[in-house]
Structure formats: C-alpha cells, structure tokens
Amino acid sequence: MKRREDKPRPIFADLFNRPVTLTAQQIRQKFLDHFAQHGHTIVPSAPMVVKDDPTLMFTNAGMNQFKDLFLGNRPVQHKRIADTQKCLRVSGKHNDLEEVGIDTYHHTMFEMLGNWSFGDYFKKDAINWAWELLTEVYGIDKENIYVTYFGGDDKDKLPADTETRDLWKQFMPEERILPFSRKDNFWEMGDTGPCGPCTEIHVDVRTPEEKKQKPGRDLVNNDHPQVIEIWNNVFMQFERKSDGSLHTLPAQHVDTGMGFERLCMVLQGKRSNYDTDVFQPLIQAIAKLCKQQYGHYEKSDIAMRVIADHLRAISFAIADGQLPSNTGAGYVIRRILRRAVRYGYSFLDLNEPFIHKLVKTLADQMGEQFPELCKQQGTIEAVVMEEEKAFLRTLEQGTRRLELALKETEGTIPGHRAFELLDTFGFPIDLTQLMAREQGRDVDMKGFEVELKKQKDRSRAATSVTTGDWVEVAKGETEFVGYDELSCEARILRYRAMSGKGGDQFQIVLDRTPFYAEGGGQVGDKGWLIAGSEKVEVLDTKRENQLIVHFCKQVPTDVNATFTAQVDASRRKLTQRNHTATHLLHHALRKHLGTHVEQKGSLVAPDRLRFDISHFAKVTAEEIATIEREVNGMIHDDLTFEDKRRVPIAEAKAMGAMALFGEKYGDEVRVVKFGPSVELCGGTHVPRTGEIGAFRIVSEGALAAGVRRLEAITSVEAERYINERLSKLDEVNTLLKHPADLVGAVQQLLDRNAALEKELEKAGREKVAALQGSIMQQARDVNGAKLIAMEVDLDAAGMKDLAFRMREQHTDLLMVLGSSQDGKALLAVMVGDGLVAGKGLKATDIIKQLSPHIKGGGGGQAFFATAGGKDPSGLKAAIVAAGSLLN
To answer: CA-to-CA distance for 216 and 206, rounded, in angstroms?
Structure first.
C-alpha cells in the first residue's frame, strides 16, 4: 500500500518494517544528534546544585548555566549550544512538590532537553528545527500537535507575536495555533532580567474516541494529563527593569526547554510519564521490596511514584555534593527524602530503611549519561540509609508526642500543637491528621496554616534581599588580576543598591580587580577602594554567576574616578595559607586513607580551614598524627607553587588533576601543583609551602553517613593553639610541683580519684541499705495502701536505687522523696505495681503535681518519675502535698 505523504514516516523500524519503541537513552541521544547536525555544540549538564548564583539553590531550568550569557556578563564562545540538563523544582516560583506522584507528569528532578542561540538564529530556525525533530526524526503525528503563541499584553503595551504565528502556519492550520496571554506565553527569568514571548508545543495523546468527544485545542493549557506541553521555545527580546519597564536587548536569543520525561511518554505511547522506561525500572524495584503490584491500588501507586521520583532528586543532589541538613538546599533535600520515606511508611508498610537499596537500580539505569551516579553510589547509599534511620526514629518520637497531645486535649487538636509536632519534631501534618481521624478527632487546619505562614514569613524576612537596577557607568568586562596583584587601578563599570539582612549596601563591578570572589570554598576578599582622601571599605566579594561583585556600605562620591582597588593583604595571606594547606591535606588523606577519599565540601577562611571527605570510618588518632606529619613534611620541604592557567580540561586530567563532582568546569581550567599535589582550582595560594608555617588538625567527626569533617589551623592560629596548650601544660606541671614523669603523675591522680569515687558509691549504697531497713517505719496506711513522704539525704542516684529496691518489696507502696543537693531541689516518686494496676496511679502524673513547688519539672515512667528544681525551700510544701495523694 502506498504511504500517504501527509503522514509522518515512522523511521524507527525493525527488518519487517514494524515500528520499534525508542528507549529513553535513544530519545535523548537523537535530540542531541539532531542539533549537533545543525551546528550546535553539545555541552554537559551543569550540576543540579547551584553554587555561584545567590538567587538559586538548584538548577530549575536548562538556561540557568547560560544566565551570564543572556545578561552579557561573559563572552559567548559557542553561539549555538544544546544539552540535557538535570533540574530540580520544589520551591519558590516553580513549586511542583505537592503534585509529584499525584498526577502523571510533575516531577521534582527532571531532565530538560534544550537548544540555545546567543545572538545567532532566532524564531524561524528555532521553529523549523523543532518541527523537523518532532515530526521527521521522532515521527510524531502532525495531527496531534498544537502550538501556542503570545497574544499580546496591554499593560506592557506589547502586540501579539504574529511573526511566530505566521511561521507555524506553514506547518499546520490556524485552528491548531492558539494565542495565549502573558501568563502562559511570555517567559521571564525573574522579577528582573531577560525575557520575551514564547511558543509552546503541546501533544494530544488521547485515544481516538476521546478526541471525538472534545477537540484538543479546548484542552491546551488546561492541565489535562494527556494534552500536555512538551517543549517551550523562548525568544528573548527584552530586559525587565526593577520598575517593571521593558527594554529591547541589544542581541536576540533563543532559549528552549523540552521535558524529557514527557517526551518519552509521547514517543513510547504511554499515558503517564511513570509508565515509561525512565521510571519503570525503579517502580518495579519498589514493588518488589514492598511485595505489591504497581497498577492495582491508587494509594500504593501514588506512593511508588513519589518514591521513584524523589529517589532521583535525592541521589543527583548528593552526587553533586549537597548533603541533607537543616538549612538551605540541604533542608530541601532532607524534606524530599522524608516525603519519600513517609509514603513508604504510610502506604507500603515499609517500616525499615529501604530507599538506599534502590540507588543501584538508578545508577545502572542512568549512570551512562550521568557517571557521577556510579562514582558516588556508595556515598549516596550510606547517606540515604542514615537519613532514613533518623527519620524513622523521628516518626516514632512524633507518634508518642501526638498520642500525648490526643490525651491532653479534647475535641479538635489545636493548630499550634499540630504545628509544633511538625516544626519541633519533624512529624508530618498529614500523619497527624491520619492518626487523629483514627481516634475520631479533627485537626484545626486553619490554626495550623496560620502558624505555618508565620514561620514562612519569618524565614522570608530573614533571607529577603532586594536589588535595584544596575546603573551603568562604563562599558566593558571585569579583568581579574588577583592571582598576581593585591592592588591595581580600577574604574567602576556599574553599581546598584541592595537591601537585606545586613542592611543597605551597594554592589559594585570594576573593570579590573584584585579582589578574589568567594568560590571553591574560599571566602571573598575584603579591602578598600581608594581615590584621593576617600576610602570606601569593601566588606565582601562574591560571584554572581560570572560577575565579580564588591559589597560596600556606600558608593564612592565620584563614580567616574579612577580608584586604587586594594585587597586587605594580611587577611588574604592567611586565607591562601589555609587554601594551600587544604590541598596538601587532601593529598595526605588520599595517600594514607585510600584513593576512595574525595572532597565533599570545604571552607577556607583566614583563621581556619574545614575539609569534608568521603570516608566510611572515623579517622583515628594515629591516622591523624600520620596525616599531620605528612602535611608538615610537605610544608618543611618548601615546595614551589606551579600555577598552570588555561589548560585544556583533558590535558589537566592527564596531569593527574582531580575534577570534583558537583563542579562545573569550562573547556580550559587552572591547574594548581605543589609537588605531588595536583588539583583543578581557581583559588589563591602561597608561592612556597614554607610560608604556611605550622599545620594542626583540631577536630574530626561525622558530618553524615560516609562523610567525615576535619577542621585544621595553620600559621598564626596554629602557633597560638600550640602556645596555649604549652602554657596549660606548664600550669599543670606547676600544680603537680614539677614531677619527673608528668603523665604518670596525672594518671596517679586519676587512679586515686577513681578509688575515692568507688568508696563514695559504696558509702552511698550502705546509706540506701540502711534507709531500706528503716524507712517503712515512716509509712502510713491510707485507703488500703501505704504512703511514705519525706526528705532524705540522698542524691538522685541514691533516691533511684532506694525506689527500685522498695518497688521489689512493696507493690502497694507510694513513696515520695525530696532532697536538696548543691543548692538544687530533687523529687522522686515511686508507685508500686499494685497501685499502678489497681488504682491507676502514675508517677508521671504525681511528679507533674508536685514539681511546681520546687519551680521545676520532670518526667519518667508510670512506676518511677523524677523532677529537678531551683527552689529547695519548696521541698517541705511538696512533701506536705504528697501526704494527701491517697485521700
């Protein structure tokens, strides 16, 4: 049969001309190949965790790594680029988290296929090549494609984008070319910055029967799960200023993003992203773990989708160096991980750590495209397992707290109590609602939302930063001269006002600067901008994307003057000593602990250095001593700094330089070499290692599972540290009257002290035994039980010992003891087992009644509880009150 010419030819077929479903890997590769054939340079994905953009925690769009090119902050090397970018959307403008797993097409971590033009091609080529890829390369039926374009905006005084509409007319009838408002078809980077109209490509994957019932055009941009947007082509023509006005950009750019997971759904003929081979290997692995089948029950299906999605986000973030924590990006990752654990716990009966077991499946599936998953697999598994254990403990503690709240309140649980469970104990609100419903109770969700909003407002106020528009003084780009100079002549290129937690400040960009901007773990330089008698202090230097920004309290009086940009030299020297020492430490750690050691984070400041490494055991005292000797040996060897700049990345790796996962490297890099230590680094260093002076590791501990943190000092701080300890040693020596063997003398004192403590314990036990034999003489019979309420000369341990002895002998005894020790009041309550079971008495309830008398509080178990207070004078009143407990 002759093929109809108006139908796209399915070019993927086997020998018998049967259509073959493309795998996700093939779909990704065909996208990259298509744009490579059209002259695009294929670049690797940037890290998902953002390190040099204060406006972002995570890469949330494919264009993030090219933001500087759109802003004109760095020169364009390749006018045409294509890639696949790993992205994460969970907070801020792109908050998709609560939709994830519920619907079929939202995700936290996703891949964004993209092609870019920087001042090269524009609308015509972008639209032509998009159509060619979708219909000729991928073979999507043209009849199922709808497109949108910007329909104009009266507020911005922008006409409809008829150019885009007319370009699409060559491929499809106008009824499938739909105009939409600024909300849907005018893309903006943020409140300010490059922006422009966009055209979205939607595909209708419904069945023929469904299409007859309602045309696809009526479902575009209506959140229909089978009429979905797969590709957005943004045409950047304008810049949005802080006053809301639009200015035409000097060069026009193209920025496109196609959802990889959605594209796979379309090409593989599925109704859900989760049914594609992007997610199915993970979902089937989860189904095997929980011994349930996917596709049978809605709640368990949602749980499996949530876990599969969240595992990807967690794993990629950890591979990029972001560990879960309680602040910033780390908190976001912890929140995602805990949501996954919660769904497994609540709906799949997975009450033990399980997510870490799925990392291997993910690495096997995606490791070819993203090798960091395979390289970091062990670290990811260890970190995730520890996080799971911690959260499962949190769920147990939260459950007990919620049970207490249910007992202490009647009717609806107050919103502030539910919020306290979430904020203080990490107990999720939906679990609070679920457990409350099981008890026939409700939760005051309005009150909860009020408390949650208060917290968000506090957090937003603490981190809020507002900036004005850049005031351009002169054209040009910044030349960094700080590797070779600490002072240079400079002129201001631009400046702007900003306000935030640190108060009102100004950001200044210079044409030349010796100031090192915070990066690679090294803090930013401080110093001054000097012109004549005016000296403007530089409080900090940071990098905003690729722009070196100097933070000052004020702008110089004459912004057109020529300044002397002067770095604080003493501070810089201390900082670079610590930076070089960090490199030497890294080399020593790999030499003596093993080559599995990799950097997971660092801080290089003037007074200290901090170095986080992948290592699965405590670094012992002997290992620390060996590592210190190795580093100090390299310092004493006075190794020369070999600074190799603009080295091709492949050549640098051939030299043995280590590239860190989570860092973005260009085609050319800087290689820093001190003898056997060879690293890729953009920081500042000493000319010779002898300048570092002394090196000392002052602490070592666990940061997360499989990650250790070492802190060290050098130079002036190391000398001070050593001198302080020598001084203390001299004091101890003097106190002990200069014994010949100081260590032996201290040990002798410790042995003598231990012997005395044993004697005191023995005396205490004898005192308790004596009381045990006589105290029942103080007991009163009250309503069929015995009551003892008295003050005793015992410490907390003695009162507990006595209580446990009496409990074994007297099941019908209620004993309340009070004692004053070191100016503090102590209370102890013992309730015999017979009174607990027969009369429902609880020591915890009694201690709550009595502890206010001593201005304190406490707790315990049903049979024994204690309290401490700051008012010993209240003991008598507490004992008197105890006398009426059985009445």
So the answer is: 9
DSSP state of 311: H
The two counts, helices (H) then strands (E), for the chain are: 25, 32
* CA 555 – CA 524 distance, rounded (Å): 19
Instruction: For residues 736 and 66, give the distance between their C-alpha atoms in angstroms, rounded to a whole number.
Output: 67
Q: Does residue 712 contact residue 585 with C-beta atoms inside 8 Å? A: yes
Query: What's the rounded Cα separation, in Å, for the pair 787 and 799?
Result: 16
Q: In what order do the strands lie in the sheet with 864-869?
A: 780-782, 785-791, 813-821, 824-831, 864-869, 856-860
| pTM reported for the whole predicted model | 0.73
Distance (Å, rounded) from C-alpha 447 to C-alpha 420? 12
Using one digit for the tens of pLDDT, what is the confidence trace for 267-314?
999 989 999 999 999 999 999 999 999 998 999 999 999 999 999 999
- Sign, CA torsion 312/318/324/329: negative
Report the alpha-carbon angle 57-60-66, nearest 5: 95
- Residue for token pair 């911005």: 156
The residues, any chain, with a CB within 8 Å of residue 371's CB and separated by 6 or more, are none
Rounded CA separation 650/658 (Å): 11
Alpha helices (runs of H) in 348-376, residue ranges in sequence order = 359-366, 372-375
Residue 4, SS3? coil
The token pair at 158 is 């922008």
Instruction: Identify each DSSP E strand in 723-879 by its residue range.
Output: 780-782, 785-791, 813-821, 824-831, 856-860, 864-869
Question: Using an 8 Å Cβ cutoff, are 471 and 556 in contact?
Answer: no
